[in-house]
Amino acid sequence: MPSSPSRAPARCSACLPVRNGRSQGDYDLALAVDPTDITVLYMGGSYDQDGASVWRGQVQAKGSGWTFANTASIGNHAHADVHVLVHSPGDPNELWCGSDGGVFLNREPRGSGDFAGVNTGLACLCSNFIGQHPTDPNIIFTGLQDNGTARTPGGPLWTHVNYGDGGYCVVHWNDPQRVLSFVNGTVYRSDRGGATHDDWTATWDFGWATMTQPIVTTPVNSTRPADADLVAVGAGQYVYVSRDFTKSWKRADVVVLPGLSARDNVFALAFASPSRLFAGTTNGRVYRADWTGSAWSVARLDNAAASPLGLTGLITDVEVDWADATLNSVYVAFGGLGDRRRVWHFDGTQWASRSGSPGQDLLDVEHNALAVDPTAPNNVYVGADIGVWHSADAGGTWEPLENGLPDAPVFDLQIHPSQRLLRAATYGRGVYELALP
Question: Could you give the CA distance from residue 360 to residue 357 in angstroms, rounded to a whole number?
């Protein structure tokens, strides 16, 4: 007997509202079903008028399908960008929300209850990048995903000092009262130490080509204090350089990176000196820009004739190889998956993988940040989606550097300019530091 034809399941029409014509369904989408009534459904998305976009509704039959009826917004006081909704086991009156702001609990989700934060004691914010006071190792800034910029004067107590999606932070190494922070495509400057919300002034809006556009300054050089005024910002297919710590931007200091498409953006920057700057892009290109006295001359490096860069994709970081006194050499790290060769080295002529040897190599996961010890440059550190890894032989072999660090994504690595401290910004577990020998 022939089998009966399969029957397509009936569909339920349920959509989260879109605010200001924008949706983040690829990043914020969560579902939960009432544990005692399967017709009651909760949906979570990005943001609403007074908090997170969390909606309650009831699944009802409609014709040959189903519809989502009697909807109500219940996301008040929860942080925006919802990633998970879950009830306490068997309890319809405890709905938990996990979002970009941590963990929130609604004890009356069936009615008019609001969410309340339950983050005390949790280190759950997503730290993108850090900025360090040049002489006082206690003072640190960090840009937080969807939680602005935070500052600590020392220890675990952090203060919220700026809004928006926080990114790079830069502290002027000759005058640490001057601080920069990135917020949603705009660079903000403080001349009062950046300790409060009122300390910041927008200095330039570069658009918002990538989530966190790079901001870098020159290496510390106490014999040339004026070099600390030099700052570079990557935005789209350009690098903008300021010579007065973002007070002004001159046309001659716009670095145009040739051959980039509209979807290939600057993602990583590093000054080797006040007159030499390296850049990496979202599609795997690497450039060197040299100041000639009146303009920046640019050379593409990833296609080096002797031996080109052997991987393509997102270049997440560029770090100068301080073992090379000519400042021609750099390391780059790659995001993405599919190849264990996530760290590469350029010696000024050719590229080579510095991702280890079998048994002592890197994992096939995203690698997000690099740090080269200027005192002992054979020591290279890389932050991956699973912790920090250390090489004592310039990338020949690698070992995990755990020492209490959680297996969380590491988005930034910095070595303090005057103290032997390696600091890691983790995505979801806060900022950690390790004293180096």
Answer: 5
Two structure tokens written together for 236: 């789209």
Average pLDDT, the chain: 93
Cβ atoms of 214 and 231 closer than 8 Å: no
Of the candidates 334, 336, 355, 354, the residue with the CA atom closest to the CA atom of residue 345: 354
CA dist., res. 151 & res. 144, Å (int):
11
What domains, with CATH codes, occur in the chain? 12-117 (no CATH), 127-435 (2.130.10.10)
209 close to 221: Cβ distance less than 8 angstroms: no
Cross-strand partners of 369: 383
Instruction: Kindly report the pTM of this predicted structure.
Output: 0.90
Within 10 Å of residue 36's Cβ, how many Cβ atoms?
Answer: 12
Q: How far is CA 56 from the centre of its chain?
A: 32
Between strands 388-391 and 95-99, the pairing is unpaired
- The amino acid occupying position 356 is G
- Joined together, the tokens standing for residue 381 give 């550190």
Pairing of strands 351-353, 410-415: unpaired
- Rounded to whole angstroms, the Cα distance separating 269 from 275 reads 13
**Which one-letter amino acid corresponds to residue 133?**
H
> In this model, does residue 10 exceed pLDDT 60?
no
With bands split at pLDDT 50, 70 and 90, how would you rate the model's confidence at 5? very low
Q: What are the φ/ψ torsions at residue 252 (nearest 5 degrees)?
A: -65, -20
Closest CA to 351 of 328, 374, 373, 382: 328
Output the DSSP codes for 343-397.
EEEE-SSBEEE-SEETTEE--SS-EEEEEE-SSSTT-EEEEESSSEEEESSTTSS
Nearest Cα neighbor of 375 from 417, 433, 319, 328 is: 417
- Write the single-letter amino acid at 156: P
8 pLDDT more than 60 = no
Contact 355, 334 (CB under 8 A): no
User: Is the dihedral angle over the CA atoms 303, 309, 310, 314 positive or is it negative?
Assistant: negative
- Tell me the pLDDT tens digit for each residue of 162-186: 999 999 999 999 999 999 999 999 9
Cα first-last separation, the chain: 78
Integer-rounded Cα radius of gyration of the chain: 24
Length of the chain counted residue by residue: 437
Q: How do residues 210-268 score in pLDDT, each as one tens digit?
A: 989 999 999 999 999 999 999 999 999 999 999 999 999 999 999 999 999 999 999 99
What token pair was written down for 267?
């993602």
φ/ψ of residue 196, rounded to 5 = -140, 170
